[in-house]
Amino acid sequence: MADIDKARAKIPAHQLGGKHSAAQPNIHFQHERDKRFVSQATLILLRNLMLKAKVSRIEITSTYRSPAHQARVMYQNLKPNKTMYKEHGARVEQVAKTIQFNDRVAPGLAHAISMLPGVEPVGYTTHSKEQIITSMAHEIGRLEEKHGIGCVSRHQCDPSKLNVIDIASESVTPAKALHHFIEVLTASVSVSRIGLPKGSTAKLAKQFVETGACIHLEVPQAYEHRHLDNVV
């Protein structure tokens, strides 16, 4: 990330905010650790697009995720009768659901076997949350070895090449600017892909609909300065 930011160091001062930096829109990170995965160029882009959409504040809830972090997020989002991810991600979810199912039936099965004549009592073990997450992370690693980094989630892509960001839609201030903000983000040539909040309708090739309420952005780190959508 340092190389990327160094390469952007020659961006004109007025694009960085200059004397008007105090009036720049507020980009808040829900997790301090995520700041290092978002380049200065991407932050400049976001602020400029926020100004264009008259948005004063947003909150970034997620950026790059390691396999372990991605597994934890997927575990937290598990739904008993619903798949939240497609293809490879669904296979990771299935690892957790299979373990959970086996853990649920294990006590009853062990008891039933132990009741059979001449059979010694049968023991069983169940898995902790952390053990299940570890199994999910292993499956993510296995899939990535076979299909490439990012096959489960784009959040796992190299942040020096692609900044992947989730923005809480409810954090967009003022709330009435949300729709226009999404339009501005979609129109930006610097945003390669955008995930719309659940319930939206994807109308363009670069759009898709999220399973949650966030706005998902993908910003390649190879764009030139003229693609920063400067409106300052």
From TrEMBL:
Domain of life here?
Answer: Bacteria
From the Swiss-Prot or TrEMBL record, give the protein name.
Uncharacterized protein
